[in-house]
Amino acid sequence: MSGLVVIFALLAFIGWLVTGSLADDWPLRSEDGLDRFLASHRTHVLNVASGIFSTLGNTQSAIALSAVVFFAIRVFTHRWIESFFVAAALVSEVSVFLLTTVVIERARPTVQHLDHAPPTSSFPSGHTAAAVALYAAVALVLWRHGAAWPVWLLLLMPCAVGFSRLYRGMHHPSDVLAGALLGVLCVMLAQRVVLGDAPASRTVTRPGRR
Fold it and tell me: Does pTM top 0.85 for this prediction?
């Protein structure tokens, strides 16, 4: 619990700086230039592709994917601890995200929005945070069980989700960066609390073997 409080306090402090004392300083005063640039260079292909990645990062998709991942990891590792690790990372992310949007109010960029704007604050990007928490946690589990380094290419997914949220005019760049930070911190917290010193097999356990 104390870890969640620290993460929330950090995100809230960053949000306070972004929306308050640093809002008129560089680079924050210029960051929306990226949103305007992307909005002025939209194409049909990028609209469709970004829509897919944005959908993959929304709440409904994150819940569905995490449920599949929860049981898939149990089958893959033949134990529950890694499944609970992924679940803990996502629950932590959602909890801190919702609390942060309650205390930090930030309007979305003043460009055309290609998605329906949820009632929550623009800060931080919940889509990005959820994608980082999910895919970083899965990549860590696979790596701990002997997967080669390319498993970290899973992190390209949250990168695509973050870019799609910018492209579709739903977030300021600092929102996406804060969302990524939130996801990383929640994975680190879940790893420390749930996995702790649990042994990490460098090879996948198979039925019938001890």
Answer: yes
